[in-house]
Amino acid sequence: MVHIGRDDGIFERERDLIAMPGLFSKGSKGVPDLTDDASVIPIAETDYIRRVELLDSFEDAGLGWFWATDHLGRIIYLSKNAKEKFGLPDAMVIGKPLTGLFITDDASMLDEDDVSTRPLAYYLGARNSITEMPVKLASRREEIFLEIAGKPQFDARHRFLGYRGSARDITRSRETRRDAQRLSLYDSLTGLSNRLRMGRRLETMLKQYRNAKRVCALIMLDLDRFKQVNDTLGHPAGDELLKQVAARLKQICDTKGEIGRLGGDEFQIILPDIDDRGELGELAARLIQMLAQPYSVNGSRATIGASAGIAIAPYDGVNSEDLVKAADLALYAAKGGGRAQYRFYSSDLQEDAQSRRYLEEDLRDAIERGEMLMHYQPIVKARDYKLSGFEALMRWDHPDRGFVSPEIFIACAEDIGIIDKLGKWALRKVCEQAQEWPMELRVAVNVSPTQLNTGDFVQSVQMALQQSGLDPDRLELEITESVFAGDDEQTLKIFHELKELGVRLALDDFGTGYSSMSYLRHAPFDKIKIDQSFVRGSTEKGNKNSAIVSAIVSLADALDMETVAEGTETHDELELVKARGASHIQGYIFSRPISQQEALVRLEKGDLAYEPRGPERHRAERQTVFRKIGLIHDDHRYRVTLRNISKTGARIEGLIDVPVGTKFVLDLGDGQLAVATVRRSKKHTQGVEFETSLISDGADGLCTRHRVSPYEIEAAGKPLAALTRDAYGQLAGLSPGMSIPRFAEKGD
Ligand code: C2E
Ligand code: MG
Ligand code: MG
Question: Which of 334, 553, 584, 614 has the most CB atoms in a 10 Å sphere around its CB?
Fold first, then answer.
């Protein structure tokens, strides 16, 4: 409502306005002096009244309000409408500090890295102008957000008088803005941070951490076989699955770090202040295991796997770009090394990634070049060690690299989409070669889940049988549990069709993560293969594997299926799996996989009885290596050769007559130092024991939990950078001790 007459409202406003010079007048001189020259008064007065009216209508229309403080920051004016609207009586406002009325709205932006909000008190204290500052109204239950502006006022002698300002309600627009922001920074499906936000977070965090000398780990996760679920169960099911994946990730990591979905089936986790690779490896293994548990999506069961790559700042990368690259490379390596693995970044991976790309190229036409062949590993009866059949295992004889492991190239073939071609070739080849054997033995062929779902799988089995004339009962198809990743009904249908052809079915790698009792009941398997990870270590004290072997055997017995204990290597393992009732045994203790030629020779001789040959018991896995490493003793650095290494110790060569009990440090490269004590010593060879056990690098390798920190190298005067192979040299080179060698070095 607009007031024209000089009623009380106007009088009140006039008084107020006189008390707040500067804001509502044009010049800095303040309001016109109403007692001035009479001839001027009417014009100034009408102008003045018009202005007051204008402000009045402005306030009435809800476009904004005004406020003013005195030189002590106490409120001396607040628009009447505002007081009414927010239910603030004068007693609660007038004379009270402005900072008690408006509080800084820190959360005005969702992206906390973007706000540089200083508290309101800061601006007031510094007598700075305030523009578009988001604030929250204090003393209110429901949240009201305002945007305020204000200017400090000074009199002619530059004495500070207080602030004059305006305010407007932005509660609604703030919500809309936050919604839009949420859309741009969060993944709408899972509610996790999206790629943009994760990228920004990582960048700001790493910048801050650099100054504070803190560390930060990054895990990249990628789901295995997600596409299969999407294809067989449909996109809505795929979406539902991703939501459940997000929920599981949150369950494990929510308190430890920040989780994001970068798109598709790619996830990322930022973990502040962790650089212990033992801890990170355990976490990654737990994540992978957790994600491998079956999901129930829209009434169907689904199983997927996950691979993880881990990189740690500043060790593997100082800025976000390098760290992400490092984690990506580690992920790529994890996927390449078979599935359901994690991998730490190491500087070797650069080369590995390159060589894997070459490998993929070469694999495309390996069949045409005749580089693929099948080897056969005997499976014997537990009762009398007589040959019961063979498992066919594919081999790739690469012209430069020699035999490449199927662990590597099968996953590769799946990725580049030629697994179907490879699988069909194997089926045909095996059926043909089995027909060449002088006796009717069974042969098992491995089938990849991808291959099984191609649509014409049953047909291709039928063709292979027809063309070779092999009796279907002699052919056994080994299928891993992961085949139950998607549409179980479709899978069961294929199984029954295969059974109708007369072939046998074996469930491979049983117990490795996708096990479910329900499909065992429905699926027509003839055999369960107990995964070698349960056979290995089953004889160690306190190891639960032997109980698991027993459980699998009794389950198979109850369902009238045979059991094969895979990967039996030692006599004690053999005794154990026999005692636990496995009906068949396969493993190096009887024979490694052999070529068709070797198989033929043996079969022609009619030699079907096998003898167990192997070590008594399993030793902590030792890897044979041949690598130059550094050895530091008494400030002197030697070069020695690492001959083999296990978690607890190593054998080194190169120093002569080192006494037992000598302590030194092995520099394993990439800043990895291991304190070791000599336990055995013979001429130029020493057996050493590590003070702290090494840990798995996720694949076959070992690594130290901790490394030389790039911050230490920086403190020694070098620029901060990711670790290089000679990280320790960089550090040690800076503090040259008196270095007189204590031990003689063996010449090469
Ligand atoms: P798998 O089907 O579980 O095959 C058993 C693996 O264990 C074989 O590895 C075999 O050589 C190895 N093994 C057998 N006895 C022992 C032992 O006593 N100690 C140890 N340490 N290992 C033993 P391989 O030949 O490297 O094959 C690895 C995997 O690659 C196979 O696991 C199978 O999943 C896959 N694969 C092999 N050939 C084919 C194929 O033709 N098609 C498909 N789709 N996959 C294949
Ligand atoms: Mg197999
Ligand atoms: Mg197996």
Answer: 334
* Domain ranges for the chain: 3-177, 186-347, 357-605, 623-745
β-strands 305-313, 216-224 pairing: antiparallel
CA distance 312 to 273: 10
| Ligand 1 atom at minimal distance to the Cα of residue 509 | 3
pLDDT score of 31: 44
Q: Compute the C-alpha angle 133/137/140, nearest 5°.
A: 165
- Find the residues whose C-beta lies inside 6 A of ligand 1: 377, 393-394, 405-407, 410, 423, 426, 446-448, 478, 508-509, 532, 566-569, 586-588, 593
Q: Model confidence over 475-494: pLDDT tens digits?
A: 999 998 777 766 678 888 99
| Chain segment 714-740, per-residue pLDDT in tens | 988 888 999 988 888 777 764 545 577
The CATH number of domain 357-605, selected from 1.20.1070.10, 3.40.50.11710, 3.20.20.450, 3.30.40.10:
3.20.20.450
Higher pLDDT, 507 or 45: 507
CA–CA separation, 229 and 661 (whole Å): 57
How far apart CA 399 and CA 678 sit, in angstroms, is 42
**pLDDT tens digits for 513-544?**
555 667 777 889 999 999 998 888 777 777 78
Select from 3.50.50.60, 3.40.718.10, 2.140.10.30, 3.30.70.270 the CATH code of 186-347: 3.30.70.270
Give distance in angstroms: CA of 562 to centre of ligand 2: 15
User: How many A from CA of 393 to the centre of ligand 1?
Assistant: 6
